[in-house]
Amino acid sequence: MDNSQLQAFQIRDRRPDALGNLKVLPDELVCAILENLTPRDVARLSCVSSVMYILCNEEPLWMSLCLNKVNGPLEYEGSWKKTTLHLENVPDEYKERCGKQLHFDGFNSLFLYRRFYRCNITLREFSFDVGNVERKKGLSSEEFFSQYDGTKPVLLSGLADDWPARNTWTIDQLSMKYGDKAFKISQRSSRKVSMKFKDYVSYMNFQHDEDPLYIFDEKFGETAPGLLKDYCVPHLFLEDFFEVLDREQRPPFRWLIIGPERSGASWHVDPALTSAWNTLLYGRKRWALYPPGRVPMGVTVHVNEEDGDINIDTPSSLQWWLDFYPLLADEDKPIECTQLPGETIFVPSGWWHCVLNLETTIAVTQNFANSKNFEYVCLDMAPGYRHKGICRAGFLAVDEDILRDVEKNAVNHEDDLSYPDLTRKEKRVRIQKLREDPEQETTTHGDSKIYELWRRDFSYDIKFLGIFLDKEKDHYSSLWSPGNSIGQREMREWLSKLWIGKTGIRELIWKGACLALNADKWFNCLAEICAFHNLPLPTDDEKLPVGTGSNPVYLLADQAVKIFVEGGLEASMYGLGTELEFYSMLHKVNSPLKTHVPEILASGVLYLENGTYKIVPWDGKGVPNVIGKCNFIPVNCKEDDFPFGLWAKKQYECIKAGMSINEQTNSAGCTQIWPFIITKRCKGKIFAELRERLSSEDTLNLACFLGEQLRNLHLLPYPSINKSTFSDIKQKMELPFANGSTEDTPYKSDIPAEWEIFIRTLSRKKRNIKSRLTNWGDPIPETLIQKVHEYIPDDFRKLVDSYQVFTTSFFIVSQLLILF
């Protein structure tokens, strides 16, 4: 055969001509770009060239496009492209044309081939051994608590033998009973996707996805209450501290998990460093686990340089087992096992784990906080990020400078590898020498020798991890991480309920409260205040602050003590100053409201000087000397004035409004000062606790009483404002915004001068209301946050000018802006 005949049989590479300048990009990057387009744009792009046609018709691409669009119930149409076209309301005749695939030669892609392989591989014949996780049957609570809880994973058999679910949780039986029930679907997007169970079963039978959708529903008990009757919490895991919370307050803790082969959970650490048990009722699961701080190969840890928060990128569980697991040396392989029906696996706090379903599986799992992991859960809730990263990613989450700082502050034995007394490079050398030691033997339970070395490489010890807490943050009022499973208010209530309900473990609860809320710091402040005012020291029952507010409040026998900390010292001084001015006004005008407001017993400022606590009494008038040294003193104040009263507070709010947290300077050098107030304690319970028990007549009488007191409150006159103070406020009002621009307010009207302060404050707060509402988080829906500007006037002066409208509309708008 001559050269001309050979050339006729050679297949031309389509890629250069079909992709043009995009030919320099790898296929993986081109596919990633396509995922960010709309379905219609992808459809148009498929007509550009043969290679674009191939790339734009990949099922994984259309799966991503579909899941980025759907928000709610999903019905699979046999392929992801058909499902997406159905969501796009494409006419049926066009759907038929799209179903006819074109075929082209001359194009090869290793990336697409590998993905195609993963999408179609079957795992039924995977020959996994039983693994090296210990298997136990008939384990007593004492044995579990001493040998495994908080220490290492274990596979337990026999715990579910008496469950009805062992016989009734099959795909066919669940389909018959719950086929029309919609369950939440887990997938890699922020969208909330659900499917009726019968539709999900149909999807499982037709799909060929690399990372199939699977049911991962934390509210299955509400959707199908009958499922809760089919199982019970095994006796080894009955201790759960979150049980003291009401169901709506409790973070998600139990999940129904159903998925086909190839589905699973990629590498992760369970939220809030809780422990978990997972019972398999149907099918087989493959588990891989690493101890805390041991980041698996293939998982990329991203550390935010600003706040220390970490995010991880991880391959799907199937991709990890196919592409990364074979590359591991024997000593670097995870602890692993194959879970069989009826077996329960226990995953301790902080452990990395990855799960791959070898066939269709049905399981139930619950996370819990108990006496073994309670301190870790509280540590994870504490404000700041660095300690969170350390708990999950070990020393990868911090740089060398931080490690050196820790080394200086930590008192450790030089030969103890439990602490980072060596640099990372030195530690690697030390660990490598240990690995090469031929005398290291395999443990008696079959764990590899490297298992013990991992544990020695990184110390998952609460005292060591506590070193990485941000000591400068006020844990009581600082913003918590958005990823926390519960908020600060819920955390305080949780600790309070534990304190009252579980008196036998108060020492442990106190340790957790110190980590999460700086409870020891505020208790020391309380003790100093009590000693100065000759009040009895708090009893054990009174040791923790109460309520869900942002300031520590203590209820003693006959007194209530409030320490002002929210917003820093300057905001705290205005908080106490306005309260004291309010009380003064009540008595000045002899308002009937004063008989229903707790009596002030004392007030003042507590500060720490040279390691010694000191207290200065303060009634709100004048400026205490310790405050006079700070850099935020109001000007033009007299001895008999309330320098931190209402109008000064409004000036402060005006200046701070619209600024980000980073732009709001905290009082430098004044962080060890805390204003406080002591009032007479009111007996009784809050309305929320009595709502269900009150009769309609009692509720009506209460409403009438509160209405009368609200009228008395509205009858109180505003404190007078002198010209010098107002002039200063006007000058402050002319300050530009944080971005350097000034507010354009062309509309002028004759409104009371005092209202200028409110208008200016509201106008500045309006500028970043969306971001502040987003930071506030639940329960404000994102859809409402995006529309908030539709409810706020463009110019508040116009609104105030209409005095009749002002009394209602302006009040609602001001509350919306100020409260949030």
UniProtKB/TrEMBL annotation:
Pfam families linked to this entry: Cupin_8 (PF13621), F-box-like (PF12937)
Location of the F-box domain: 19-65
PROSITE patterns: FBOX, JMJC
CDD domains per UniProt: F-box_SF
UniProt-listed InterPro entries: Cupin_8, F-box-like_dom_sf, F-box_dom, JmjC_dom, JMJD6_ArgDemeth/LysHydrox
Domain JmjC: 222-385
Entries under PANTHER family matching the protein: ARGININE DEMETHYLASE AND LYSYL-HYDROXYLASE JMJD (PTHR12480), TRANSCRIPTION FACTOR JUMONJI, JMJC DOMAIN-CONTAINING PROTEIN (PTHR12480:SF35)
UniProt similarity note: Belongs to the JARID1 histone demethylase family.
The protein, known as: JmjC domain-containing protein
